[in-house]
Amino acid sequence: MQNWKNLTDTLQKEKNLDDADFRSLLTQTGEADAELFVRADQVRRAVYGDAVYIRGLIEFTNICKNDCYYCGIRRSNRLAVRYRLTKEQVLACCRQGYDLGFRTFVLQGGEDPYFTDAVLCDWVESIKNQHPDCAVTLSAGERSRESYRALYHAGADRYLLRHETATAAHYGQLHPPEMQCENRRRCLYDLKEIGFQVGAGMMVGSPYQTTEHLLADLRFLQQLQPDMIGIGPFIHHKDTPFAHCPDGSVTLTLRLLAILRLLFPYVLLPATTALGTLAENGRERGLQAGANVVMPNLSPPDAREKYMLYQNKLHTGAESAEQLDRLKQAVQTAGYRVVTDVGHVKRRNNNT
Ligand code: SAM
């Protein structure tokens, strides 16, 4: 039988394992999880204390030119009711968020051709002018290097672009042929070189995903050394080609969060909405497994219902920015503290 204590000890100290040890950790029957969570919590407390950073999520458009097989806002889903927020609506969301204590705004949307560099740069500049003490995170998909550079110079601080899977063949099972794994990687490296704090990540339990794919994801993340890693379980959406695929595992998502915290002590690691959607107290359990960020929804309420990436996506209660008090209470009960802070990644020293 594996000696889980030694294995987690090595992972904590060396921030790495060989492939065979990663495989056994990823596929174990749950015996090692308690040990993993304790270690991950020690590491997050050593770097970030008990602070939980909050990000105000503004879902600014659900119009998308892409056709990812898993996603509810994919181009071919004719049942999705489409919307695009106006600049005034977004600025109003930021003002409301600022008053509530948010110091990072995350603008996430489909790849909507309306958002040329001129439009998006103008939005970023206006947000930064009105809230100079806040960070702006963009999550607007694949763009050219020039476009990313323009957005960075307009004032955007961070960019989230999950790599989705680091295995080209698996990427091809999740996306139509016009979408390429290679381009996604190019984008991430461009963003990093330009100076963004960069977030990559993947769904856990996406269709056809194997342990080897997850191992490849960990190795890719080790190469990229991102500042943020977004992971959450895959959740089916009834109007997509993956309508009948099983949802991802909460246990494996929590295990991966802990492994990621041990591999990347300084990373900003959200307890995602998808985790909160699949499991009762999923977000709190994510924090206890090493996550240190939550992203309540600041979008106008009618937009929230239309940004349905997957079935039953949470957007009310502690998931909504207006009910921040409920979130604060839940976070406190879990043993942490929501802070009003821009919440940049802590400086890294070779990630040690
Ligand atoms: N267009 C931007 C992009 O491609 O990064 C941002 C929007 S995209 C909808 C945000 C993320 O939602 C994706 O990176 C994907 O991992 C996640 N997502 C989409 N469909 C999902 C599903 N069915 N279950 C879980 N996560 C999903």
Instruction: Report strand %.
Output: 5-15%
Helix share, percent: 40-55%
Distance between the termini: 30 Å
The main β sheet shows up as:
6 strands, parallel
Number of helices: 14
| Shape, principal axes of CA atoms | globular
Q: From N to C, what is the helix and strand string?
A: HHHEEHEHEHEHHEEHEEHHHEHHE
Overall description:
This protein is an alpha/beta fold and 352 residues long. It is built from 14 helices and 11 strands. The chain has helices at 4-14, 19-27, 33-48, 87-100, 117-130, 145-154, 168-174, 181-194, 211-224, 250-263, 273-278, 282-288, 301-306, 324-334; strands at 51-54, 56-61, 104-109, 135-139, 158-160, 197-200, 203-204, 228-229, 232-233, 293-294, 337-339. The strands form 3 sheets. Strands 2-3-4-5-6-8 form a 6-stranded parallel beta sheet. A 3-stranded parallel beta sheet has the order 10-1-11. The longest helix is centred in the first third of the chain and has 16 residues, at 33-48. The model has no long low-confidence stretch (mean pLDDT 95). It binds S-adenosylmethionine (SAM).
Which labels suit this protein?
352 residues, alpha/beta, six-stranded parallel β-sheet, three-stranded parallel β-sheet, 43% helix, 11% strand, binds S-adenosylmethionine
